[in-house]
Write a structure and sequence with these properties.
Blueprint (H helix, E strand, L loop, with lengths): L2 E5 L3 H21 L9 E5 L11 H13 L2 E4 L4 E5 L2 E4 L4 E3 L2 E4 L7 H4 L11 E2 L19 E2 L1 E2 L4 E2 L4 H19 L15 E7 L2 E6 L2 E5 H13 L4 H16 L4 E4 L10 H10 L3 E4 L2
Parallel strand pairs: 1-2, 1-7, 2-3, 8-9
Antiparallel strand pairs: 4-5, 5-6, 10-11, 12-13, 13-14, 15-16
C-alpha cells in the first residue's frame, strides 16, 4: 500500500509523479511517525529511455535529476502490459505489488479512426494537408487528437495538446465557411508556432520552453503557475486560486485522516471483522 506507480514520462506523468511524491512524503513525515521514508516507493515507468520528449532533452535530464533527488524510482524502456487491484505487470515479466496505479501514458487512436479508408501515420492518426483536409476525400476534415498535421517549423506532426487543437478549430471553421460561401481561394493554412510547454515537477521546481527560451527551476515553476492563474475563467476564481496558492507557501497541506475502523450498522459481524482486518489509514486531500 506504500508503493505508487505512475505510467508515462510525458508532461502529465512528470507533473503527477512530482505532485504525488510531495503529497505522500510530506504527509507521512508530518502525520505518520510509524512509517519510515524507506518504506515508501514511488515509481515512474516509461516506454522510452527519455522523459519529456515533447519538450527538450536538456530539460528532460533536469527533470529526471530533480525527481530522482526527491526519491522517485525510474523504470525506463519498459511497457506496462497488465494490472490487477494489487499489482502491475511489466513486459519483461516483472510484477510490482501496489495498490495505486496512475495511467498517464497518453492517448491512443480509436478503432473508428484506425478503420477509416484514408492515409494514416505511424500512430494511426489521419494525415491531413495544411488546410486540415483529408486529401483523398473532398469535404472531409480532421483535427485534434485524431489528426496528423505537419508542423513545417519542425518537420514533425503537431503535438496533441489543447493549445494546438484550439487554433486548429479556428482555422477549420474559417475554411468550412469559405467553402460554403464558394470562396475557396480565401481558405487559410494551419501554420502555428508552438508558444511553449511547461511542467511542474514538485518542490517548487519546473521545466519550460517559452518562445524557444529554456527555463528550469523556480522561475519555470513560477511561470507555470502564472500562466494557469491567468487562464482561470473568472476574477473570483483567479482570486480564490491565488489566495490558496499564497497560503500554501507558508503552511502545510490540509489533510483529513481516518484513523480507525467503525463498524457499519446492517453488515454482518463477519463482514465487519474482515473490513477491520484489512483497514488502514487513509488520506483525503482537501486543498
Amino acid at each position: 500500500m506504500l508503493t505508487f506507480v505512475v505510467v508515462g514520462g510525458g508532461f502529465n506523468g512528470i507533473e503527477t509523479v512530482g505532485e504525488l511524491t510531495d503529497f505522500v512524503k510530506d504527509t507521512v513525515r508530518e502525520y505518520y511517525k510509524n512509517i519510515s521514508m524507506s518504506e515508501i516507493r514511488i515509481l515512474l515507468i516509461n516506454s522510452s529511455d527519455k522523459i519529456l520528449q515533447q519538450a527538450d532533452e536538456e530539460l528532460g535530464r533536469f527533470a529526471l535529476k530533480k525527481l530522482k533527488e526527491m526519491g522517485v524510482e525510474f523504470i525506463m524502456n519498459t511497457h506496462v502490459v497488465g494490472a490487477t487491484p494489487n499489482s502491475v505487470r511489466l513486459d519483461n515479466g516483472r510484477i510490482i505489488p501496489c495498490y495505486t496505479l496512475v495511467w498517464s501514458a497518453g492517448v491512443t487512436t480509436s478503432d473508428i479512426i484506425k478503420n477509416l479508408e484514408c492515409v494514416h501515420d505511424t500512430q494511426q492518426r489521419i494525415i491531413t494537408n495544411d488546410y486540415l483536409e483529408v486529401p483523398e476525400f473532398p469535404g472531409v476534415y480532421a483535427l485534434g487528437d485524431c489528426a496528423s498535421i505537419t508542423d513545417h517549423h519542425t518537420g514533425k506532426p503537431y503535438p496533441q495538446t489543447a493549445q494546438h487543437a484550439i487554433r486548429e478549430g479556428k482555422v477549420l471553421a474559417h475554411n468550412i465557411i469559405s467553402v460554403i460561401n464558394q470562396k475557396e481561394n480565401k481558405k487559410i493554412k494551419f501554420n502555428y508556432k508552438t508558444k511553449g510547454m511547461m511542467a511542474d515537477i514538485g518542490k517548487r521546481n519546473g521545466v519550460a520552453i517559452i518562445f524557444g527560451i529554456k527555463l528550469h527551476g523556480f522561475i519555470a515553476w513560477w511561470m507555470w503557475r502564472t500562466y494557469y492563474l491567468a487562464n482561470m475563467p473568472t476574477i473570483s476564481k483567479k482570486l480564490e486560486v491565488m489566495i490558496d496558492w499564497t497560503f500554501h507557501l507558508f503552511f502545510k497541506r490540509d489533510v483529513a485522516m481516518i484513523k480507525r475502523f467503525i463498524a457499519e450498522p446492517g453488515l454482518s459481524s463477519t463482514w465487519n471483522d474482515e473490513i477491520a482486518k484489512n483497514a488502514d489509514h487513509f488520506l483525503i486531500k482537501t486543498s
